[in-house]
Amino acid sequence: MVNIAILGFGVVGSGTAEVLTENKKLIEAKLGTSINIKYILDLREFPDSPFGHLVIHDFNTILQDEEVSIVAEMMGGAHPAYDFSKAALEAKKNVVTSNKEVVATFGVELLEIAKKNNVRYMFEASVGGGIPIIRPIQNDLASNSIKSVSGILNGTTNYILTKMASEGADFSDVLAQAQKKGYAEANPTADIEGLDTARKIVILAALSYGKLLNPSHIYVEGITKITGEDFSIASKFGYSIKLIGYSKSFGDKILAMVSPRLVRFDNPLHNINDVFNGILIDADMLGEVMFYGRGAGKLPTASSVVSDIIDIIDAKKYNSKALGWTSASDSDMADFEKYSCRRMFIFDGNKSDVVSVFEGHRTGEFKEFGNKVAFISDELSEFEAKSKASACSAKLVSMLRLL
Ligand code: HSE
C-alpha cells in the first residue's frame, strides 16, 4: 500500500482526493497496489467533507510518519509550501505539486535535494493545469532539440481577451464581468500583469533548455493596456490578440518573455479561446506539436497531480529520468533589446512622417482609422522599434508584437 499526504485542501487539493477516490479501482488496477490518503493538512476543519476525518494541522505528523511516501503539495504561495516541500524531500518523501510559484522560484534547489535523497519532485500540474506538458517535454520530446515554445498559459487572461474580441469591450469592463462570474480572482494582479504566465514559461524553458531563469528578470507585459480598438484594428489585418509566454534558444542563450501578441488566423493558437490553454512547441526533428486543454480548474489540475503520483509509484514502467536544472545567470539570457519580430503599430496624428520613417520597414498597406494610422512592420528589434517610433511626431498609441 502507498500512503499519501495532501497539503492544502483547497480547490486542487480536494480535487486530488476526489480523483484518487473516484478512480481508485482503475488506478489501483493499473498499478497493482493500493493507494491510501492518510492525511490532509489544512488550517481549517472540514466536518461536512467525506475526507474531514483525515484533516490534521501539524505538518510534523506527516514528516515523522515513515509510512507516508508521497506528499502532494497544493497549498499555493511560496511559504510554507516551499519549506514543507524541502523538509519532505529531505525526509526522503516524494513530492508532487501544482504550485508554479514554488517550482519557478525554488525548482533548482528542490530538484537537487530530490536527487540527493533518491526521491522525485514532480510538477505536471504547475503548467497548463490538466494538459500533459511537463512529461511530454521531458520524455517524449527527448530526442529533439526544442527551438521555441509559445503558450497561452493563463486561463483568466485568455477568457478576458476572448470576450474583448467577441464583444468589442474594453479591458476593465470585461475584467469586472469575469470577477462577477468567479473566473478572475478578487486580486487578479498575477494573472493580468503576466506574472503567472512568466512563472509558467520559465518552467517550460527550464524543461527545454535545462536552465531556470528568474521570472522577475524576464520581460513581462500583461494585458491591462489592450483596448477594444487594438482588437478591431488587429482583426482588420487578420490577427487576434493573445497573452503569450514565449521562449526560444539562440545558441547558448535563452530568451523568455511574456507579452500580448498578434496571432494570425492560420496559427493553431488563434483558436484557443475562453479559459483554455494551448502550448505550441517547435522541435527540430518533430516540427510543430500543440497541446490543448483545460489550463485550470479542480478536476483537470487534480488529474495532472494524480498522474505524477502514478508515475512515482510505477517508476519502473514510466521511469522518467531524474531532472536536474541549474540556475540561469544573466549571461545565459539573450539580449531582449535585440529580439526581432514583426509588429503592428498604431499612431495618432501626423501620418506623413510615420510613412517616411517606416517606408521600407512594413509588410502591408498603411490603413487609416479616423486620425489614426496602423500598419504591420517587417522584423524589427525592440531597440529599432522604439527608436523608429520615437522619431515620429505622431503619438504611438499601440505597438503589439506578432507571434
Ligand atoms: N490563475 C491561473 C489561470 C490558474 O487563470 O490560468 C491556473 O494556473
Structure description:
By secondary structure, the protein is α/β, with parallel strands linked by helices. The protein folds into three domains: 2-129 and 299-325, Rossmann fold (3-Layer(aba) Sandwich); 134-294, Dihydrodipicolinate Reductase, domain 2; 337-402, Alpha-Beta Plaits. The chain has helices at residues 11-22, 24-31, 59-64, 81-90, 100-116, 134-140, 155-167, 171-180, 189-192, 195-209, 228-236, 298-313, 315-318, 351-358, 382-390, and strands at 2-7, 35-41, 55-56, 68-73, 94-97, 121-122, 146-152, 211-212, 219-220, 239-250, 253-264, 276-283, 287-294, 326-327, 340-341, 343-348, 367-369, 372-376, 380-381, 395-402. Strands 7, 9, 10, 11, 12, 13, 16, 17, 18 and 20 form a ten-stranded mixed beta sheet that branches. Helix 1 (11-22) crosses helix 12 (298-313), helix 4 packs parallel to helix 5 and helix 5 packs parallel to helix 10 (195-209). The protein starts with a strand and ends with a strand. Bound molecules: L-homoserine. L-homoserine (HSE) binds at residues 129, 154-156, 191, 196, 295-296.
